[in-house]
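Project outcomes to date are best conveyed with an example. Our students and postdoctoral researchers have been running inverse folding experiments weekly, and each run begins with a structure described purely in tokens. The record below, which covers 142 residues, was selected by the lab manager from last quarter's runs and is presented without edits.
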């Protein structure tokens, strides 16, 4: 039987293992890249001609690929902030998708039957969950 844990031992048990952190980083980066690819594909497929929405899709492509790369090269001490930025980007993208589908966004109305709508929805939901968890777990150690 062991005695009570010291503060250092308790903190060490709560700390995210490097292996789990890397799995979350890789999955999160993959989801951000997937989100970026979907938006690039749709932009090339004609969304580029839609006022405001088209440039937004291109910006989302750049942000998604950029954050995915940054998530993989950021030092461990800063990964929580990059993950948080990625989660917020995915959440904003998801909010835009839902607004465009329900009430319209900048005069554009989307449909759930549109190409890659459901893929976009699930990739963005997963990105919010994975990157949000990574941010929460890594930022708490500071």
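After processing, the design step wrote out the following sequence:
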């Amino acid at each position: 039987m062991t005695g009570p844990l010291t503060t250092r031992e308790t903190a060490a048990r709560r700390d995210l293992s490097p292996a789990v952190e890397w799995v979350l980083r890789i999955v999160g980066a993959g989801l951000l890249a997937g989100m970026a690819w979907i938006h690039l594909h749709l932009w090339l497929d004609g969304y580029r001609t839609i006022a405001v929405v088209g440039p937004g899709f291109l910006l989302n492509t750049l942000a998604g690929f950029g954050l995915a790369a940054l998530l993989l090269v950021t030092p461990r001490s800063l990964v929580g902030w990059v993950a948080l930025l990625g989660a917020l980007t995915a959440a904003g993208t998801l909010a835009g998708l839902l607004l465009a589908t329900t009430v319209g966004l900048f005069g554009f109305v989307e449909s759930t039957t549109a190409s890659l709508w459901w893929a976009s929805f699930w990739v963005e939901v997963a990105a919010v969950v994975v990157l949000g968890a990574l941010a929460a777990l890594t930022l708490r150690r500071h």
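The radius of gyration is 18 Å. Helices lie at 7-14, 18-44, 53-73, 79-102, 117-139. The training component of this project remains on track.
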